[in-house]
Design a protein that fits this description.
alpha+beta
Length: 261
């Protein structure tokens, strides 16, 4: 047989073996990712006060996407939530586009050390099918709403855990309660969406959307808050390697079935 032909056959065999190994590796990674992947959306509220707050009512922002509120809202409104303090009551108020979480509390006590605030919080999470978008979340995912004045800003340097893009905005909270004139209260609401899977010991990517306001004295009305979206944390390479779309409209199972947490 011609020597050139033998070399060509050998090259083709090597290429075939390389391609086979490559596609086997990709299929193995893909199978492991799909088998172990979990997407989770978490909503958390934290209230800190250095004095007593009585007859408390808050209207807090909830997750909202491009078209509708996310099903986690139903859980928060119906309750009771396992992590909700016993004296706290939640319900939903508002319209389809601007639904708020109403929180009613008879008393939020101060800390035992004068001048040091006591913190009370609750959180709720759900697991969803498909991937959660962790970049470009304003267009493709779910964020706290309503908001206005969204602008790009620099992200804090967190090394390997740094966010890829951050945005400031103004949010809204309604607060009504009685308190001493010098009493300070901090309200913080955080939404976190993350994907986690088991490859090389465990990996994840996620984004956060949080807003906070600091109030002094008794309150009765709407307050503008400072909000921050930080997106693109963690490992995004898996989406590229497996040709996974980070756009929910490209997934047939994206926001379909919800496995309640």
């Amino acid at each position: 047989m011609d020597r050139t032909l033998l070399i060509l056959i050998a090259v083709l065999l090597v290429m075939l073996a390389t391609c086979t190994a490559f596609f086997y590796a990709i299929s193995t990674v893909s199978a492991t990712y799909l088998r172990t992947h979990e997407a989770r959306l978490t909503y958390e509220v934290n209230v800190t006060a250095d004095g007593q707050l009585t007859d408390v009512t808050f209207l807090l922002p909830l997750p909202l996407g491009q078209y509708a509120t996310y099903p986690i809202t139903e859980d928060l409104g119906v309750g009771p939530l396992p992590s909700l303090p016993k004296s706290w009551k939640t319900s939903l108020v508002g319209s389809e586009r601007e639904t708020f979480l109403k929180v009613e509390v008879p008393l939020i006590a101060s800390g035992s050390v004068p001048g040091v605030g006591a913190s009370t919080s609750f959180s709720h999470w759900v697991v969803v099918r498909g991937q959660l978008p962790t970049t470009d979340v304003l267009q493709t995912g779910y964020t706290l709403a309503p908001k206005e004045g969204v602008i790009l800003t620099g992200c804090q340097d967190g090394g390997e855990e740094a966010a890829r893009e951050c945005m400031n905005y103004k949010g809204f909270v309604h607060a009504r309660y009685e308190a001493e004139a010098a009493t300070n209260a901090t309200i913080k609401v955080t939404l976190k969406g993350e994907n986690a899977w088991v490859l090389k010991g465990g990996q994840q990517n996620y984004y956060t959307d949080s807003l906070k306001c600091i109030l002094t004295g008794p309150q009765s009305g709407w307050v503008k808050t400072e909000g921050l979206i930080s997106e693109g944390y963690g490992d995004l390479d898996i989406f590229v390697a497996l040709n996974c779309s980070d756009n929910p409209m490209h997934s047939a199972v994206w926001w379909g079935d919800v496995l309640w947490g």
